[in-house]
Write a structure and sequence with these properties.
- By secondary structure, this protein is α/β, with parallel strands linked by helices.
- The protein has 22 helices and 13 strands.
- The protein folds into three domains: 93 residues, Rossmann fold (3-Layer(aba) Sandwich), CATH 3.40.50; 136 residues, NAD(P)-binding Rossmann-like Domain (Rossmann fold, 3-Layer(aba) Sandwich), CATH 3.40.50.720; 264 residues, Glycerol uptake facilitator protein, CATH 1.20.1080.
- It is 56% helix and 10% strand.
- The strands form four sheets. Strands 1-11-8-7-5-6 form a six-stranded parallel β-sheet, with helices on both faces.
- The protein starts with a strand and ends in a 6-residue tail after the last helix.
């Protein structure tokens, strides 16, 4: 089975990079601006325009539109393009084509400045590509092919590449870009003998097809170990869009291939493992670039922070309750696992190995956890949106939801007899843990809360840096394991520990067993609960916000970029 070279993560990676660049320009007072020039009201142009505007806005790129009627004169259009050329606040221009038939396309496009020609429609842009100069930009599809190959770490230098197609928009510029990468390129086109095309393809390390010929590349064109990139566009007999490659025939043979052309979906971002000489190692796969750099990660979290702040109150409460319940179940599980063990080292080690899976489940389910949301100041620092009021609203609603979920689990454990294990020994242990937390001095609870959430937020970030579920779970595991081993204080977990202890102490049988075991019940009151939860919560806020400030300053404010 071949590795699927999905374009979706490539686009996401590029968008993150562009967004960071735009943000750095914005901090210097420069607003990247796209000029859109449209003549008439073709439905295709309007639909494309809407998509371009949405994408630009998502990347913090401003858009200025120059809209001309369908009967606009050639001179009017040329003057519009000259206006775009002369306006230093416009950094790129997109001219929609085809133009109405009364306009001379070649004469019009020649007016546009190459440095603003983002669609490579000018002769100067193509000339710059041919001469390997910095004039203009290469066409977007050709650039996308190279970005795809680079993203999946597919080596090009010295490789044999069969380029099928020689159009000025895809085939020819792609071949030129590949030669700039020191690849050996054979270009096949409509006049190339079919047998020669098959021979070139079989001999190549990489096949790129942009011929616009349905099912051109079949099983007899390929061999094991090859990489196949299909950028052909064809309408098949079924009326759907298809590529040039007979996917079902080719995919079982080659090492890597782009997905079949039908909604790309959420495909795994996997690439081949490259052995000596740069050729794919038969039968091996690995995850390539399966992480985000610190700057990418922080930018991603910052953008997600806006969505967190803008969630409805109901969503925040419900997702908060889910997170609280998950953390409470993890806390109940650790108590159950160790209540019969007296050795502190053994108790903390077992708890440290079990409890982190709670945070892992929170991450996987997309639940809202107060302690993780303590990094929301990062969003405000990056000026992604939101406000201090919305941040505090998020904290209040999520904490309330966490409390609701935690206390519900505590009530169920007590009322349903879960604490009856070993003739109530689990209830005694639960009360002992809660009473000990209520007896913590204010300063100790505050400091242990800071240290705890420093680690929890590191766990959240580590989980978010991975692109696959196993990596996310492992990312969350270690930091949380550390805080449990060290005995740091987590406000949401304490809602269960203290809540369950208070409820258990209200049961006469459990209270008498605890007193007989020498547990001091005096601290276990609502006042004692507040004396723990207030400083621990404040400490959690300081730990999370402090980490956000530190990372923002080092990786974003100081100009960090994705690696």
């Amino acid at each position: 089975m071949a590795v699927l070279l999905s374009g979706k993560p490539v686009a996401e990676h590029m968008c993150r990079d562009i967004r960071l660049r735009c943000e750095k320009l914005s901090r210097r007072g420069v607003t990247p601006t796209l000029g859109i020039v449209r003549v008439g009201r073709r439905e295709e142009d309007i639909a494309y325009e809407r998509g371009a505007i949405r994408r630009a806005e998502s990347l913090n790129i401003a858009v200025r539109r120059f809209l001309l009627p369908a009967d606009a004169s050639q001179q009017e259009l040329i003057q519009t393009l000259r206006t775009v050329n002369e306006d230093s606040s416009i950094h790129g221009c997109l001219l929609f084509r085809p133009l109405p038939p009364h306009l001379d396309t070649e004469a019009v496009t020649s007016v546009l400045a190459p440095e603003k020609d983002i669609d490579a429609i000018t002769t100067a842009s193509m000339g710059g590509l041919l001469t390997k100069s910095d004039i203009g930009f290469p066409p977007c599809t050709a650039t996308a092919c190279l970005e795809l190959l680079h993203y999946y770490d597919i080596p090009l230098k010295g490789k044999k590449i069969a380029m099928i197609g020689k159009s000025a928009t895809v085939g020819l510029p792609t071949a030129l870009l590949l030669m700039k990468e020191e690849a050996t390129v054979s270009v096949c086109h409509i006049f190339t003998d079919k047998e020669d095309t098959r021979s070139f393809c079989q001999d190549a390390d990489i096949i790129i097809s942009a011929a616009g010929c349905l099912d051109l590349i079949r099983a007899d064109y390929v061999r094991p170990g090859q990489v196949v990139v299909d950028v052909g566009v064809n309408i098949g007999p079924d009326g759907a869009m298809h590529g040039d490659v007979a996917f079902d025939e080719v995919e079982p043979i080659v090492a890597a291939i782009t997905p079949r052309r039908r909604g790309r979906g959420d495909l795994h971002r996997a690439g081949p493992a490259w052995g000596p000489g740069g050729l794919p190692v038969s039968g091996t796969k690995e995850i390539m670039n399966n992480y985000l750099s610190p700057a990418e990660l922080l930018a991603s979290y910052s953008a997600a922070g806006v969505r967190k702040m803008e969630r409805s109150a109901a969503s925040l409460l419900l997702l908060g309750a889910l997170a609280g319940a998950i953390i409470a179940i993890a806390a109940a599980a650790t108590n159950t696992a160790v209540y019969g063990i007296s050795d502190t080292w053994t108790v903390r080690t077992i708890c440290g190995l079990l409890f982190p899976f709670g945070l892992g489940l929170v991450v996987v389910t997309g639940a809202e956890l107060f302690t993780g949301n303590c990094m929301l100041p990062l969003t405000l620092l990056e000026k992604k949106g939101g406000s201090a009021v919305l941040m505090v609203r998020n904290w209040a609603l999520v904490f309330a939801g966490n409390a609701l979920g935690s206390l519900l689990v505590a009530w169920l454990c007590v009322s349903c007899g879960q604490l009856d294990y070993s003739a109530g020994a689990l209830a005694v242990y639960t009360i002992r843990v809660g009473a000990a937390k209520c007896a913590l001095p204010f300063g100790s609870a505050l400091g242990l809360g800071v240290l705890c959430n420093l680690l929890v937020c590191l766990g959240v970030l580590a989980a978010a840096s991975a692109r696959e579920t196993p990596g996310r779970l492992m990312g969350a595991f270690l930091p949380v394991c550390f805080f449990v081993l060290c005995g740091f204080e987590h406000s949401v977990a304490n809602l269960y520990y203290i809540g369950a202890a208070l409820m258990a102490a209200a049961v006469p049988q459990y209270a008498s067993l605890a007193a007989a075991a020498g547990v001091d019940l005096a601290p276990l009151t609502l006042t004692g609960a507040a004396s723990n939860l207030v400083p621990v919560t404040l400490g959690n806020i300081l730990g999370g916000a402090g980490l956000a400030l530190l990372l923002w300053y080092c990786h974003l404010k100081q100009g960090g970029t994705p690696s």
